[in-house]
Amino acid sequence: MNNRFFSSLALRNIKSNKQLYIPYLLSSITIIMMFYLMASLLDNEFVQERSSSLSPLFVLGTVVIGIFSVIFILYTNSFLIKRRKKEIGLYGILGLEKKHVAKILFFETVFTSILSIAAGLVGGLIFGRLFFMLLNYMVRLPVDIIYSTSSLIVLATVGLFLAIFGITFLYNVSQFTFANPIKLLKGKQEGEKEPKGSIILFILSLVFLAWGYGISVTIPDPLEAITKFFLAVLLVIIGTYLLFISGSIFILKALKKNKQIYYRPGAFISISGMLYRMKQNAVGLANICILASMVIIAVSTTLTIFIGAEETLENRFPYENNMTLFGDVEDVEEMNTRFFELQDRVQNTVNAEGLEVTESESYRYATFFGGVQGNEFVFDESYADQENPTVLMVLPLEDFNGMTGKSYTLDDDAALYYHSTNAYTDSELTLGNKTYRVAEVANEFGEDMDLVESMAIVVPDASHLLEIQEDFKEQYPETNYLTIDAEVGWNTSGTEEQKEALAKQFNGEYGLGAGGSNLYDSRLLQREEWYGMNGGFLFLGIFLGLLFTIGTVLITYFKQVSEGFDDREKFQIMQKVGLDRETIQESTRSQIVWMFVLPIVIATIHVIFAYPIVRKLLLIFGVTNETTWLLSFVGVVIAFAAIYWVIYRLTSKTYYSIVK
């Protein structure tokens, strides 16, 4: 028998089992589309250019979708091969050797994998372009976000799913290699043994979840949140699977022992049926829970960034006009001269345009890197080599009082301080060769202080900045990054047109590309680009949310179909002994607790514990308003629950049409 015979037999098998293969192929195609679309975002120009923190997050999303793809295709394939055990056993009875059956399964795998991968790539390309066009039309950003992909992404997608389908082939071959044909003929009719609840797995699930939650709750700063976000997500995913596999069995067995609940027709059918198939059910429920968590986090965070665009713009640019003066440690007097001359120039330029300065803020500061040891700040020459350096900002009392409108006074050996993590509680602090008596103040230094572990020190006057610089220079003579810089910010009166004209004037003289040792930024000139960037984040959030929602639809539909085929013969037997259709429907409705409530509840708990690490990531984008995120989170949970309810109701009709 040649390969042509086996390939034609494989094609005939696929056609004759189309009722099973069509859902399997559709599922595989959709999963491949999801992974391909997610991976394509790694090469997207918007993702690459807008924020350095986006790329690691999309790498994480791609890895998670890849893991989900492996689990889901193996899950759907196991259902498929289980339904075909009788057919495979018949081949053995008819005289085909196991190597011949393996060849048939090989060609079936080749045909289904080629069709799935090709259709998934083409569908992903078409869907990606159409969906980006639709979102660009709906969101109406200043510049359209273009969908793009690359040959590397295509090769990665093909390689991953060829490997996955290869694993399914090996699994399918193993199902008949160690079984005799007679047993395979009865394979579909054999019920699964009641699963035993494993206390070890249940404890492990709690350990993994607590570990992941703990990382999120105790994360110190946003930069570390980026590096540890992947580990936290991976731990929670593992914990979720173990929790559904082990914890759900404990609950079902507890319900089974409750005679008042269990010995009712609807509950009897639902509980006993789900208990005997809980391993497969648990995987499906865990997949839904993980996808629901992704939808809620992706959409709620990007929605928060978009809604809080004005807030983040104000945090990034505290005043309508903002100027940074880059100084030189060797010439503090020149820095002071430039500092005060700039403020005079700003005042004169604004007045010359017939406007007035309504608000202003200006301060000088020096920045150091190192760490606190005991009651001493220890300088570090090469801060880039430190894993988590503490950033120290030192500024004079005169400027701090001007910033805050306060009237603090300080002795020559006294200082004020703020620590972003409240970790420093000593009454003294040594900087260089000088020890200060310190008193704590609230954060008056900007939201950026919370991005990394930071400390601000207010010293009696500007001469102390130079003394501390000289002490640092004495320890590290080769250091070349020490400077005393300054910030000047101001608002003006006038119309939007007048403010824009003034901003363009300053931008032409001091803006990026103008050269010099000053840098000007305008909130007004940055607003359109800022809203476009935040709208782009919302665009990506909606795109990812739709991807994960499609995955939820897919897993729910396939779960209902697989359960329908498993339950059909049982319900037919029960109908013959007097079970009516209403009871069947009641037993179906009782599964809402598992199919609807449980995944949403667990997903919501995941997102609540993810909030601390998500909040740290939002700080990178300048979002500091917790209420905005909370409202977005609640709204997305309600919206997704409503969508999921509709999905469940529609797919449950498929289940009922199969079993009846």
Strand order of the largest sheet: 2-3-6-7-5-8-4
Radius of gyration: 32 Å
The biggest beta sheet is recorded as:
7 strands, mixed, barrel
Unreliable residue runs: none
Number of helical stretches of at least 4 residues: 22
Mean pLDDT: 78
Gap between N and C termini, in Å? Answer: 42 Å
At a glance:
This protein is an alpha+beta fold.
Description of the molecule:
Among the domains are: 1-190, no CATH class; 327-516, no CATH class. Helix content is 68%, strand content 11%. It is built from 22 helices and ten strands. A hairpin with a 2-residue loop joins strand 2 and strand 3. It is elongated. The mean pLDDT is 78.
Relevant terms:
660 residues; 22 helices; 7-stranded mixed barrel; alpha+beta
Task: Chart the SSEs and their pairings.
Blueprint (H helix, E strand, L loop, with lengths): L2 H14 L1 H23 L4 H6 L3 H30 L1 H9 L4 H42 L11 H27 L3 H5 L13 H20 L3 H36 L1 H4 L2 H12 L1 H30 L1 H8 L4 E5 L6 H21 L4 E17 L2 E4 L10 E7 H8 L9 E6 L8 E4 L2 E7 L13 E6 L3 H13 L8 E9 L3 H15 L7 E5 H54 L4 H10 L1 H29 L5 H34 L1
Helix pairs in contact: 1-6, 2-4, 2-6, 2-7, 2-19, 4-7, 4-10, 4-13, 6-7, 6-19, 9-10, 9-21, 10-12, 10-13, 10-21, 12-20, 13-19, 13-21, 13-22, 14-19, 19-22, 21-22
